[in-house]
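Q: A reviewer asked whether we had any structural model of the full assembly, not just the individual parts. We don't, so I'm hoping you can provide one. Inputs are below.
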Amino acid sequence: KAGVTQTPRYLIKTRGQQVTLSCSPISGHRSVSWYQQTPGQGLQFLFEYFSETQRNKGNFPGRFSGRQFSNSRSEMNVSTLELGDSALYLCASSLTADNEKLFFGSGTQLSVL
Amino acid sequence: AQTVTQSQPEMSVQEAETVTLSCTYDTSESDYYLFWYKQPPSRQMILVIRQEAYKQQNATENRFSVNFQKAAKSFSLKISDSQLGDAAMYFCAYRPHMNTGFQKLVFGTGTRLLVSP
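A: Here is a predicted structure for the entire assembly that you could use as a starting point for your response.
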């Protein structure tokens, strides 16, 4: 069974641009959540989707958004990039919204210049 | 708000020896989950072990075991017979039970484990 797939692995953008990251969950998993990992702030929750609905959102500005498609694949978008958005963005999937066993992808490393 | 604290930024162990990583947390909930995740250089977060707060018995997974002290809000990870492949960042994490609270993982700051031959 394939794991959680995140694309691309690496991204380099400049300030003011926007970026879209993709996450394909494990087959059969319907819940997808996103986390941001930085050296300064550590791992922080961004948002969670289940059945195409955003269930929870972390404390991030409105520039951070996401969505989930009917096949459970998810995308997150960051508009008007800032230097501080440079981070590893991790996606995790689980069978259901309430299943506590999360399986993570290898992340997308975003660098904002 | 729930918080997770890992007070050891880095730990070292020799192959075949035992090492214990510390974690404390703060919550007002009585039912929750605790986890240890391993993050090797590949960056993928890998679940090592999971503990349900209502279970008094400490979880074990092969060479990995936990010492869960609910009253003290302590959740340490013991790695026995350490192997070179155990070298990684280890994160302690908390998640409320599905019937209580905001469903998200709260992570500690991590402990880097170095394993020497």
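A: Points you may want to mention in the reply: Chain A touches chain B through 24 residues (CB under 8 Å). Chain A is about 0% helix and 55% strand.
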